[in-house]
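Listing 4. Sequential folding, example run.
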Amino acid sequence: MIVCVGAGPGHLDFLTRRGASLVEGADIVAGFDAVVDVVRPLIPEGAGVVTMGYRDQVARLAEVAALHHAGKRCVVVFMGDIHFSGFQYLERVETACGHPVETVPGISSAQMLASRGRVCFDETTFLTFHRRGDLTPFKTHLRDVLRAGRNAIVIPRPWDFMPKDVASYLLAGGVSAAHRVEVWENLTRTEATWAGTLGELEGRDFSDMSILLIRALTPLPTGLEGER
């Protein structure tokens, strides 16, 4: 057995019961160091732990795949929901195993931010830049989303498209500097790390664990106008 589990946005309170049960019953738990640390209290005594980083993930996943084929119950943990920003990692797991694997979705940082920021997903577009490859089509999509009057929840790319870079790109593309923005670095807290305008965001530094909410200039009608 090998299962990929979404481990929530950095806190065990937001790990699903199914995900927790799989970790508790695993022979091998694998994933990036920071994600494994989230679920470490649930890892059974005697279970093997395989941690990895960006540079050695292919080799380490090959080790996990070999253990899986040897009959071990393996769980690979992902931050948040596998299908929000972990799809490339999932592909690497399946390539290592040589077959599709079961996935158990988790609560994503996008869901948490929608809750913290009190925005409706119907009126909000989620974009993740936490991917390898050309970002141009996704940058253009973000600009068009804001021009269309929607909110945007954005996961930046840690090494070259951080919150300040998002702001610079949008401002250079003619997006209004007046958009209200919130940057969250710890979604288990009740308030944003920083709040201001898109214009004020340019040049500000945040950690790699940041996620942004860029609000529409004009909120969409709720459909309940006129009710008493």
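-- end of first protein; second protein begins --
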Amino acid sequence: MARIRLYIDQPLVAGQPVPLDGAQAHYLSGVMRLRAGDAVTVFNGRDGAWAATLAEAGKHGGTLDVGAQTAPQQDPPDLWLVFAPIKKARTDFIVEKAAEMGAARIQPVSTDHTNSERIRQDRLQAHAVEAAEQCGGTFVPPVADLVPLSQLLDGWDPARRILWADEARVGPAEALAGLPPGPWAILIGPEGGFSAVERAHLSRLRFVTPVSLGPRILRADTAAVAALALWQAALGDWR
């Protein structure tokens, strides 16, 4: 399999050329120094991984020739990550690790104590693409735009349960093995924690399950990784 993997938002069919935009062409020819005929692995998030060769690349674009499929599509379990954005680099880290660890959707939310009032959704989506390219995945989780947590909860489908990483529950990490399967979301709060009003709201919702992530208070980015790992090991595709 080719060393370079590239996400292409195009249908992939054996024997069919696919266009490259200027940034992709520059990455392959200018950054990675590929030449015509060199091999690339491509995926579109829907149809698995495919062998391809670089046909041409210039300043304004290029073309890949698609060969045979090399791996089937591997979709993650139906798990969302809902989190409050923090500092830029650490928010990038959360998105990258969520993509690597098998989140099906990434939903930033604003809370009473959220440090960031806005995000660059396109930049975070690019980080999710890069993570899938680098970790060998064939699925790219969509990164939604920032919404208020209260608005998200008001329209929430109760069939999707929420695992709330409650920073107030410092103690032994709680086993998740007894929780029901099905669609889930993990909720990670901001650096300052949820406000009293938000905590009261979450506590009233029957589809929300609060859990401890262990005996230490974790930073928000660490908490996201820990919660994803616990859920994947108990209910996801790590079993």
